[in-house]
Design goal:
Length: about 240
């Protein structure tokens, strides 16, 4: 009893704050999924950063001899901060990404959306082509290129439709005459919606398959749109 009553306040507050931040994480996700994405993401970031700082504090306390008596208490309380710190590590270890959210395989002539505007809503990001964004993409993702397929154009279009469906995209336009597909992909945890347009054309090199993926909200996408396009290209090539 005496040991518990003499426990330093910093050890107790380590636990209180760690539990609070742990509870903030799912609450912030719910906020994002309900449409309050700016406030939700801010709370999410604060919870992750705060949890990381608490882990650092716990390490400092463990290294100080005056807290040896409460090492078990410190470890138990620090465990509540581990999820947020792990998420912080995942967010910061993926590399450096430009603050853009519009990615395409054809930077000279990006595919155009026609049905996406009615799906996205008035508060979504613009679908207009931005040359500054194009330049940033070329610097960040130089290997992202048009997919050249040996398949006849009709077969390439059918395969593109199949791959998009298999990837779980919600297709809201499929025009076999224009050889264009438009769809939306919803991310798993935060339920962000990103629109994708696929364009299939013939050329002397073969059948050209181009994609463009654009986030509905937010400034940067942490590489999500480029990763989505690469996943599509890999799946398409495996089934050619």
């Amino acid at each position: 009893m005496n040991e518990k009553s003499n426990r330093p306040a910093v050890v107790n507050w380590l636990g209180y704050l760690a539990i609070t931040l742990l509870l903030v994480l799912p609450f912030s996700v719910l906020m994002v999924r309900n449409g309050d994405w700016q406030q939700g993401l801010l709370m999410y970031a604060i919870a992750c950063l705060g949890s990381t700082l608490l882990i650092i504090l716990a390490i400092v306390l463990l290294l100080r001899s005056r807290f040896n008596l409460w090492r078990k208490d410190i470890l138990q309380r620090a465990l509540f901060a581990v999820p947020g710190a792990a998420l912080m590590l995942a967010l910061t270890s993926g590399g450096s990404y430009p603050t853009i959210h519009d990615i395409t395989t054809d930077t000279a002539d990006p595919p155009r959306f026609t049905s996406a505007a009615s799906q996205r809503g008035t508060n979504s990001n613009s679908l207009e082509i931005d040359e500054d964004v194009i330049q940033q993409q070329q610097e960040a993702y130089p290997t992202l290129q048009t997919l050249v397929s040996p398949l006849p154009i009709e077969d390439a279009y059918s395969l593109a439709l199949e791959v998009a469906t298999d990837m779980g995209w919600d297709i809201y336009r499929q025009d076999s005459n224009a050889m264009v597909i438009e769809a939306v992909d919803t991310t798993g945890i935060m339920a962000f919606k990103d629109d994708v347009v696929i364009r299939v054309r013939s050329s002397a090199r073969g059948t050209l398959v181009d994609l463009r993926s654009v986030s509905r909200v937010g400034e940067g996408d942490l590489g999500a749109n480029a990763a989505r396009i690469n996943a599509f290209v890999n799946a398409f090539q495996q089934q050619e």
